[in-house]
Design a protein that fits this description.
The chain is α/β, with parallel strands linked by helices. The protein folds into 2 domains: 2-113 and 292-324, Quinone Oxidoreductase, Chain A, domain 1 (Alpha-Beta Complex); 127-266, 3-Layer(aba) Sandwich (Rossmann fold). Helix content is 30%, strand content 28%. Strands 3, 5, 6, 7, 8, 15 and 16 form a 7-stranded mixed β-sheet that branches. A 6-stranded parallel β-sheet has the order 11-10-9-12-13-14, with helices on both faces. α1 (42-49) packs across α10 (305-313), α2 (119-141) packs across α3 (159-170) and α2 (119-141) packs across α8 (274-287). The mean pLDDT is 95.
Length: 325
């Protein structure tokens, strides 16, 4: 038996609780792992609070991320004692996840834990931080350099936004952090932001083309915020879109693309190939300041994850929540 955050749905309704489950209930897979730390991403919050139909099979163990140690493996790339990271792959949605003391996963999904990180630090990064790194890599691939001008980061106090701000600041970019929590301006400047703007400047419907402001954008918000970011991006700039905190709609025109040559780069972290994952984690180990990572991290026990998920959905959290399993 092992403890897990189990999500259940029946005619009686929805329930999320930490309870003991049997090893025999674990799904098929070629790697059995002991999870040391997990985390709460936006998608985890949606699942645990039942705010959106994220979960596709019931009952479900939540947790799209995990880090820990391999207990047993029939996969040629993994052996008992190896340290691993897991991000995405539908875990916590269609397959039991990592907000549990044990999980059975597929070896092809796992990434070796970089020596630079503990399991706690890896989950302080989690899918949110790994996604932020994928966004930074996209900006670099499209030729955006630190001297090109300001980079806008939306949802800056969230998980993706906080890590993106840290990464871009460390790499020498001038970051404009957009947030609805202006009281957190000092926090964002400690992370590396050179300016903080009110998200209200971006969240309402705006003109199809606006004054050119940003050399590039990292957007985790979507909807009107993403549309306005596109309308304000400079000629030849790039916008990396990775989230939908405001909405999944895109009420835009083609004008930024055909009159200013703006690129909209979609960022997917769930099904990203292994090569992209390895590159992202290698760069995180090199470019992420561990001291700043500690600044954005709160650690809670497994029993505290449900309350934190609700707080996350209410917009009361900043940075990253690590769950000590």
């Amino acid at each position: 038996m092992f403890n897990a955050l189990l999500l259940e749905k029946s005619e009686a309704g929805f329930n999320a609780s930490v309870r003991a489950v049997d090893d025999h209930q674990l799904p098929d897979g070629d790697v059995l792992v002991q999870v040391a730390h997990s985390t709460l991403n936006y998608k985890d919050g949606l699942a645990i609070t039942n705010k959106s139909p994220v979960v596709r099979a019931w009952p479900m163990v939540a947790g799209i991320d995990g880090a820990g140690t391999v207990l047993d493996s029939s996969h040629p790339g993994w052996k008992a004692g190896d340290r691993f990271i897991h991000n995405g792959w539908g875990v916590g949605e269609t397959r039991w996840g990592c907000l549990a003391e044990r999980a059975r996963l597929k070896g092809e999904w796992l990434v070796p834990l970089p020596a630079a990180f503990s399991t706690l630090q890896a989950m302080a990064i989690g899918t949110a931080g790994y996604t932020a790194m994928l966004c930074v890599l996209a900006l670099e691939r499209h030729g955006v350099r630190p001297g090109d001008g300001e980079v806008l980061v939306t949802g800056a106090t969230g998980g993706v936004g906080s890590v993106a701000t840290v990464l871009l600041g460390k790499l020498g970019y001038r970051v404009a952090a957009a947030t609805g929590k202006l009281a957190e301006a000092d926090y964002l400047k400690r992370l590396g932001a050179s300016a903080v703007i009110d998200r209200a400047e971006l969240s309402a419907a705006g003109k199809p083309l606006q004054k050119e402001r940003w050399a590039a954008v990292v957007d985790a918000v979507g909807s009107h915020t993403l549309v306005n970011a596109l309308a304000q991006t400079r000629y030849g700039g790039v916008v990396a879109a990775c989230g939908l905190a405001q909405g999944a709609d895109l009420p835009a025109t083609v004008l930024p693309f055909i009159l200013r040559g703006v690129t909209l780069a979609g960022i997917d972290s769930v099904m990203a190939p292994l090569a992209a994952r390895l590159q992202a984690w290698e760069r995180l180990a090199r470019d992420l300041d561990p001291a700043l990572l500690a600044t954005i991290t709160e650690v809670v026990p497994l029993a505290g994850a449900i309350d934190k998920a609700h707080a996350l959905m209410r917009g009361e959290m900043r940075g990253r929540v690590v769950v000590s399993v």
